[in-house]
Structures are given as structure tokens and as C-alpha cells.
Amino acid sequence: MLFLVGMDKKYELIEPLMTCHCQRCGEERQWSLYKETELASLFFITVWRFTPDYFLVCDVCQDMVKLSRVQGKQLVHMGSRDQKIHDEVEGLVIEHQTINDKS
Known about the structure:
By secondary structure, the protein is an alpha+beta fold.
């Protein structure tokens, strides 16, 4: 018997989320929220969607910051309208880029 099984990742742009400083670009840039869902298929039919992951991506240099699922869901529902969440996510971007600059 032959089974055609496959795995794929789907990236979905949720929204352009916020503007903050990108250390790679050296300027204030727009960051967008993306949702990544991994899919399992059988005979080219999706049979399982794994829990999604969320990423912030710089629109210019494509630097990517992975968010926790909780933060991703909060941003999907509230966007950057909540100043506390906005500041927290901006801090994550800065921390991520600072760590990667040292490597």
C-alpha cells in the first residue's frame, strides 16, 4: 500500500503591527505580525493543523522575532492598541536584536 504523507508550513500576514527601531536597518521601521501554521497532509488533503506560532517581521530587512503563543494571541486580538503589550513586544525586538548582534 502506498501512502502520500506530507508536512508544510503556511505563513499568514495578520497585520502591519507597529513601528519601532530596527538595529539591522538602523532606522524606525514597520514590523508586521505573521502566523505560522504547520500542516500535515495525507493524499494532499490537510488532516491536521498544529498549534500556530507567531512572529514579528521587519518589513525592510525581514529580521524575524518569535513571540510566545500567548503574546501572539494577545496581539491578534488587541493589536498594538494596548500600550503595555506594545511596550513589551518592542522590548522583545530590542532584546532579540541585541543578542543577535553579539553573536
